[in-house]
Amino acid sequence: MPFFVTGVIPSATGSVYYEDGSTKIICSVYGPKSNPRAQYSDVGVLSCDFSYAPFALDFRRRRGKYDPEEVSISMILKDTLTSSVQLDKFPKHEIQLFVMVLERGNDEVSAAINAASLAIVDSGIAMYDMNVAASCAFLNESKQIVLHPTLEQMESDDCTGVVTISHMPSLQQVTHLYHSGKLPKNTVFDMVQKSVKQSEEVASFLKKQIAANVAKTFTLPEDYHDAVMNAVKFAKNANDFNAQE
Questions:
Q1: Cα(158)–Cα(146) distance, integer angstroms
Q2: Which residue has the higher pLDDT, 241 or 212?
Q3: How confident is the model over 209-236, as pLDDT tens digits?
Q4: Is residue 95 a part of any domain in this protein?
């Protein structure tokens, strides 16, 4: 299961450091910010910027100012996360999301979606549900579906297909589905089902960790229970008095 720490960038509205296997990601959220130059809209705008740290890859892949894969993943993040953020609460506002891969060892797309969801949760921005993603690969030689595949497994000649899926577990809505390679329909269907189940397990784990982190930061005073009981007794006595009158 992944490891994460929220609130790592004090200047951001929400932020998270996220580890999933060998993949390490840092993500920050800024806003909602008013954009007076933008045309009026009933809903806000979510902008996403995905990038690799210069030391995250074994080779230099940038050509010019923009990297095609970074732009593609940025669009995936925007399309996926827009469905989970309640943008109708922020008309004519913009929410900025920045995701940087520090180290790449597993599927960075699913890890980026999970990290971004956690950063938005940390920011306190209203969401319909968390977007949680998972991926799996099909190894042709062993005819095996591998959940949470490593980069070596996905890039090997034995791997004939990869499926990445993101969905909102509480709403049972799929928000992103990516499939690469040539596979029979039945195999793709099995991979989708297993990825959904895996993402539900990850979602349950993340939500429990979030609740545990909140419980650590929110402590009730020692006399809280006595104060509540006294308030209940006072209300009961007041009701009895009013009833007698």
A1: 12
A2: 212
A3: 998 887 777 665 666 567 666 766 766 6
A4: yes
pTM of the model: 0.85
Classify the C-alpha dihedral 119-122-128-133 as positive or negative.
positive
Work out how many domains the chain is built from and give that number.
1
CATH (domain of 83): 3.30.230.70
Does residue 63 form part of some domain?
yes
**What is the residue whose two structure tokens read 């940025």?**
74
Q: Which domain holds residue 53?
A: 3-217
Placement of tokens 């509540």 in the chain = 228
| Rounded Cα gap, residues 135 and 107, in angstroms | 7
Is 134 a member of any domain?
Answer: yes
Please compute the mean of the pLDDT values over residues 38-44 and round it to a whole number. 77
CA angle 206, 211, 214 (to 5 degrees): 125
- Compute the distance between CA of residue 103 and CA of residue 74 in angstroms, rounded to an integer: 17
CA 116, CA 138: separation in Å to the nearest integer? 27
CB atoms within 10 A of CB 225: 10
Is the Cα torsion angle 149, 153, 159, 161 positive or negative in sign? positive
Tell me how crowded residue 60 is: count the other CB atoms within 10 A of its CB. Answer: 7
Query: Which residue bears the tokens 């008309």?
Result: 91
Q: Which residue has the higher pLDDT, 85 or 141?
A: 85
Q: What residues have CB less than 8 Å from 76, skipping those under 6 apart?
A: 109, 113, 176, 178
Q: How far apart are CA 194 and CA 182, in angstroms?
A: 18
Domain contains 237 = no
Cα angle 100-26-202, degrees, rounded to a multiple of 5: 110
> Does residue 241 have a pLDDT over 80?
no
